[in-house]
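> agent: user asked for a holo structure of the chain below bound to fe (ii) ion. Plan: (1) validate sequence alphabet, (2) canonicalize SMILES, (3) run complex prediction with ligand conditioning, (4) return tokens. Step 1... ok. Step 2... ok. Step 3 dispatched.
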Amino acid sequence: MIAALPQPRHPLADLVGWDDRVRLMVRPKRYQHVLRVAELACQIACANGIDESRAYAAGILHDIARDLPDAELLRLAPPEHAIDAAHPLALHGRAARTLLERWGYRDPVVLEAVEDHTTGPRGGNPVSACVYVADVSEPGRGVNDDIREMALYDLDAALHRAIASKVTYLQGRGIQVHPRTLQAYYALPLVRVDHGHSTSGSLVSENAPACDSAAPRLSLRRTRPVP
Ligand SMILES: [Fe+2]
Ligand SMILES: [Fe+2]
């Protein structure tokens, strides 16, 4: 008799118990936000042909370090830049990853999405895009309804709008943009293409093509969008 081969663990299987840990780590209102992000990330993933279970898992886990004190965030995620030391809250994505790894969570796709949810997806990870967009546009925030709706048929465009609007908002007010967010911004295909031809110092060229342009884009989609 042939012994059954061990089956790879389903990402949701790893969530057994994690849900309770998150509930214990964050304030009640935050936990409701977490549930909405997980649900929306799952919907966005489903609509764009992306791994729904990983999107849901990353949504559940993304803010596990959000309510930790600054000193704990700095301990879990030592500052990489001066802005980190000045604003430790921005470290809660990296701190969450450290915490999850220490507690034995192993899915690298989910861990990257958790880490990058504060500053933006840097490497074309489609699960990261789902969680980032869901986090900024979940219904409880009361803003970014346009980004949420767009994400359900064009995640690339929704991600572009979310990151570009953040960068232009901060720059317009003279607020420093986190270097990781700039990295995510420059990784956006429309920005990358446009920046290569831009002669201005602005991050967003006046000549930037519209989101529905035929210019090359990061392909986060694995299947065609739902009609
Ligand atoms: Fe967060
Ligand atoms: Fe969040």
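> agent: step 4 complete. Summary for user: The chain has one domain: 14-195. DSSP finds twelve helices and no strands in the chain.
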